[in-house]
Amino acid sequence: MFTSLIEGFAMWRTSSGHAELIAKLRIRMVFSGVCGTIAFSCISYRLVDVMIVSRYGAHERVDHYIEHVERKADIVDRSGELLATSIATASCYVNPSVIIDDDEMVAKLSKISGMPSAEKLRQKVSDKNKHFVWLARHVPPQIQEQVMDLGIPGIHFQKDYKRIYIHNNLFSHVIGCSDVDGIGVCGLEKNFSRELATSDNLNKCLVTTLDIRLQAIVHEELSDAVNKFKAAGGNAMLMSNTGEILAMVSLPDFDPNNLGACSSVDMFNRNTLGVFEPGSVMKIINVAIALDSGAATLCSVFDATEPLKIGRFSVTDFRGKKRPLTLAEAFVFSSNIAAAKIEQRFGVTVQKAYMKRLGLLDKVELEIPEIGSPIAPRMWNESTAMTMSYGYGLAITPLMLITAVTSILNDGIRIAPTLVYGRRKSSTGGERIISSETSRDVRDLMRLTICHGTGRKAAVDGVEIIGKTGTAYQAQGSGYGAERNRKRITTFVGGFPKDVPQVILIISLDNPKATEETYGFATAGHNVAPTAKNIFKRIVPLLYSGDYNEPDDSNLKSLKYVKLQTR
């Protein structure tokens, strides 16, 4: 019996130790399983992060960015001709978190043209917490092939969109340009950057009032004039009698496809930003005020025999007639003396009121951001008003001047300039600024100037061109410089046909030089007037036979407009 108890106790101890051992082993197995599961989960997470999230997550973010921001709507002219578009390209980026050997990557990639330098590459991959860093945008196919042949993990190409300007510098100051991210820098691109980039507009386009044919003609003739007369620059615009701008050229210009090579001087829009004293073309405004206010008639006589004293200064005429002149003669022969005496008939208050109504004292609204403000005199007294009558004392932009003149010639109805097709206002039913009779008389005077006055070199056979020239000295410091060093701006404003002008042209040259052909003269009648003639001769066949307000091209009917907000 005792032996049986001993054996039983031994068996009990053995079974108890076995159970304890099993319990310990079970705990160890559970612990090992938990640790293994955690390790496996960490490894799996890292594999997913490297192979899927890091690789494709950046792609999704870039795709979303490009699809909704960079792919912008097209810009076309009034007949549907493409001016600006976005094309699909490929851009190179790096995922620093998966780069294995920074030195190897930098050494190989920096040798390829178009890629960043070794120093910049090293900076781009230094932060391993980043998953996406651009290396190069809009990479050419041959460079793409060289990079892909390297087979470096973490370097990829992503579909991208690049803004392309079909005609290079032809429309540079109007259409403007975009930066590498597709954000508008100037012109229509900047003003409508958000609207053009909205995803709803990807199958639509912004239709402008511009005409590629007219723009090309104006650009070519203005360029020739700048070169021929060795001018520092020039500008020109064509505007319809409804306010639509058909062409706008400013020289020097720039290539919007190569923004890095553009200077601030090249990007300056002389038509809308450059304020200047326009000289004798302001006599259009002066006689319109005199006739409309009843201060004078076409037959009113003004003595231009002797210079007119204004304080310590004298008003003189360039090659004056030195005799009494009717208002019509004073305008045709561009007499400064008579212009000042005409202003004395209606005075400062009336002049200022009409200037305000004509929009010459306020900024003009247009669908580009580069708009200049007029510089009006602080002390608007009688002497200031007299000098203003022949184009000094008030600095305005060419856009302000052509808008005011077009309103006068448009039967006296105010027009509003626009660059966006479909926004134009009717040529009738707007605010009346001057009477129909005054508008008719001004048109007759401008026709006489082309036939017998300073604008004779702008005449075109068979077409009733109307116009007025102006030569003004440029302000330099507190004055206009010494006689021999004075700089000029020469300007022509005119249009056709006389009775119902459909197209108005303004053209200016910055400090043109005299040539043998001009017999030593550098005045407007010898440089901008013949330039205007060259433009008229080429555009008349395109426009004269019919109403140009509506494009004939049926392609325009199929275009979908970008939804644009009114400024």
End-to-end separation: 114 Å
Q: Can you give the mean pLDDT?
A: 85
Described by strand count, sense and barrel closure, the largest sheet is: 5 strands, mixed
Percent in strands? 15-25%
Low-confidence stretches: 58-69, 551-557
What is the assigned CATH homologous superfamily of the domain at 214-555? DD-peptidase/beta-lactamase superfamily
Coarse shape: elongated
Number of DSSP E strands? 16
Give the radius of gyration.
Answer: 37 Å
Derived structural class? alpha+beta
Q: What helical percentage do the residues reach?
A: 25-40%
CATH class of the domain at 214-555: Alpha Beta
Number of helices: 15
CATH architecture of the domain at 214-555: 3-Layer(aba) Sandwich
Structure characterization notes:
The chain is an alpha+beta fold. It has a domain at 214-555: DD-peptidase/beta-lactamase superfamily (Beta-lactamase), CATH 3.40.710. 38% of the residues lie in helices and 16% in strands. The strands form five sheets. Strands 1, 2, 3, 4 and 7 form a five-stranded mixed β-sheet that branches. Strands 9-8-16-15-14 form a five-stranded antiparallel β-sheet, with helices on both faces. It has a two-stranded antiparallel ribbon with strand order 5-6. The longest helix is centred in the N-terminal third of the chain and has 69 residues, at 2-70. The protein is elongated.
